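Side project, low priority. Logging it here so it doesn't get lost.
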Amino acid sequence: MKCMIIGGFLGSGKTTTIRKLVEYLGTQGQRTAIIVNEIGEVGIDGDTISEGGVETREITSGCVCCTLRISMEYTLRNLMLSYRPDTVIIEPTGIAFPRQIKSNIESMGLPEISFTPIVNLVDPSRLSPDAGDLQNFVRNQIEDAEILGINKVDLIGQEKLLETCLLLRKLNPGARIVHFSARQGGEALEKLFGLIGKSSRDKTIHEARNSVEMSGVSAYSTEFEITSQEIPLETAVSVSGQILDSIRNRVTQLNPEFTGHIKVSFAHKENFVKGSVTSAHEKPEIEILKKEKNSRSRLKILSAVTSVPREELIKTVDTTASGQLEDRKLSYIKVEKSNHGYSQAPINPLKQRNF
């Protein structure tokens, strides 16, 4: 079984790239499974990736490179036993140390597992040209990589692309650098997939680090079950966009230079509304995906940002979400999650609120 570790900081386009990679592997007859790791208690990316029917597992409430190592081993062994994939793709949190993940898996003694080159994706529009301005975990991710993928090149000019290439080459002279647009696809993206399929060079790590402690990132996620009937799709889209916009504005007040990722998903009938925002200076991006009919409407929110007190982040997310739902006269139940490494079924739902 091949193991692909595809890292990258929050908002670098990992989920979109992996969705395209799964399609590519499918055309080659590959049986693929995905492990998605979210730092918050509620997973969002797993819902998005699993749309193609691919086997997907979520590990939440921390980072698999340190605090959730046991959860990772359990998940890998379970996948190998029950699903027997040709390839497993690991999408770690945006603050993870990919080489530490590889080292951990190597020490598990799993049979017949091999590694492809560690990939780290970069959004050049959010990368300072000065290496001294990079946070430690961003620098570490770049240095860990065997392939550095500069994503979203359709949104930048040649000067910024060259500037990014020079910075990455300075930080990691031995890595292969590829630039592409996961959203647009094309030959450049297929070139990346071709490189990913090769064997990894041996790398070892001698020091265990706690990525959550080192990152300075506050994270919080939550989930609501919408009990109102006949919700128009336009309402789901509008609520998602307003929630993203309001959280972004509040976080900007707390830290005008915040780095992070705020994500929303709204499962609505046969649609899946996905939205995200990664900085104070951009508008929320909303995408509507088709999926099998949902039995229930669910709203999920994940936020992970730097240098904002977690208690303020929790307050911001909860009050924003409940306020938007109440403004639209939507009844809901806030779903509580148990704090384990795996996604759990909702427990102890709070009192339903009807408006």
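Brief comment: Residues 339-355 have pLDDT under 50 and may be disordered.
Revisit when time allows.
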